[in-house]
Amino acid sequence: MRKGSLEFWPHRRAKKQMPRFRRYAAVNEETELGGFVAFKVGMTHVSMIDDSESPSKGSEVSRAVTILEMPKLTAYGIRLYKKGYLYRQAYTEYFDLETAKKFGIESKNDVKAIKNDSAFEDVMLLVFSDSSNLGFGNKRKMRFEIPVGGKDKDQKLSHALSIMGKELKASDIIKAGEYIDVKSITKGKGWAGVIKRYGVSTQVRKATGKVRHVGTLGPWHPPKVMFSVPHSGHMGYNFRTELNKRILMVGKASDAARVNVSGGFPNYGLVSNDFLVVDGSIPGPAKRLVRVRKAIRSSGKIAEPQISYISVAAKNGA
């Protein structure tokens, strides 16, 4: 029987820390943005009223949740897009010079010049993250772009100009009960053999000279080893996307005591910024950068969950 999944191929290490989304959900409301970045803090569990259509509807249930901390995000520029040959391409960029200069970003056209530009077809907001005050002391600033909501390009541009140079809050982008898609890098496990990497069964000790190896490399013809044959190689540290993760709570920095566990989260520390409580698990270890977008396939209703208890017990096994 075939062992191992070919769903993700090739199995290779991610080349950069910042994930990339190729598509975003349509955001028609003027006051909304389509995504942001956060850092994985750790996991705990909550008690809440089940509002799904399951047999436990209306009863109190316990759910495993992941805490995401949102660094300080500041909008520093606008990137315009137009339709190119077979794909969308960047048209031009405009920076808020005062904000860009403050963080060492090379100056480009001032945002005032954008008002005379009418050849664009879509608008993206340029944002940088200041994560210097996170629980694990990350000092690296990251830049990325997020889609801007609006019914047409002029409304999108107007909204982007209105938040230029301002700090973005989690509560301004996402609401409790909404569904998101997350993209992150899984845990890196180093070099692994076929037993661990693909789940191949061990060989009978007396049948072959080896035990922890694949039984056959394939038929004589074609006279080559196919790519689908399990081999040893690097395991983990791959980009993975998970769809339709529900936001159970959107908290402010002043509410961090509600989720901070005793002694701090292992390998992370304490939450001190805006945070999210997400239902279920998210790929990657603590401190991992997580790219978030509004759910692109969501059809579920948006209703704020009723959380009655959040566990803050120590997670270090003490």
Task: Walk me through this protein's architecture.
The protein is mostly beta strands and 318 residues long. The chain folds into 2 domains: 35-187 and 237-310, Elongation Factor Tu (Ef-tu), domain 3; 188-236, Ribosomal protein L3, domain 3, CATH 4.10.960. It has 4 helices and 15 strands. It has helices spanning 97-102, 153-162, 170-173, 194-198; strands at 35-49, 60-69, 72-83, 88-95, 109-110, 122-130, 141-147, 167-168, 179-185, 188-192, 233-236, 239-251, 275-279, 289-294, 307-310. The strands form 3 sheets. It has a 6-stranded antiparallel barrel. Strands 3, 4, 5, 6, 7 and 8 form a 6-stranded mixed beta sheet that branches. Strands 10-11 form a two-stranded antiparallel ribbon. Helix 1 (97-102) links the parallel strand 4 and strand 5 (109-110). The longest helix has 10 residues, at 153-162. It is globular. The relative contact order is 0.25.
